[in-house]
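anyone seen this seq b4? input:
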Amino acid sequence: MEFKHESNRIFLENEEGKTIAEVTFPETSDNKVNINHTFVDGSLRGQGVADKLLTELAAKLKNNNKKAVPTCSYAVGWFEKHPEYQDLIEN
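predicted toks r here
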């Protein structure tokens, strides 16, 4: 599974170029993003794709010294289940 990266989005496309999974995180300041949307197509559900998207995003945030404000319900729950990434949360 090879995710594509854009400045405020990590996503996966199918063979036809349709987005089948994504997480979006617009910048709210120079060092902060708002994780506002996570989507996984029904064909991929139950395969841990959303978890992989958030793990990829966490690595990107760490590498770029950025903090996150999760507002998407999946992202909020994901950070609650992954205390090892609590240092990425902006309080």
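The mean pLDDT is 95. The two ends are 32 Å apart (CA to CA). kinda curious what u guys think
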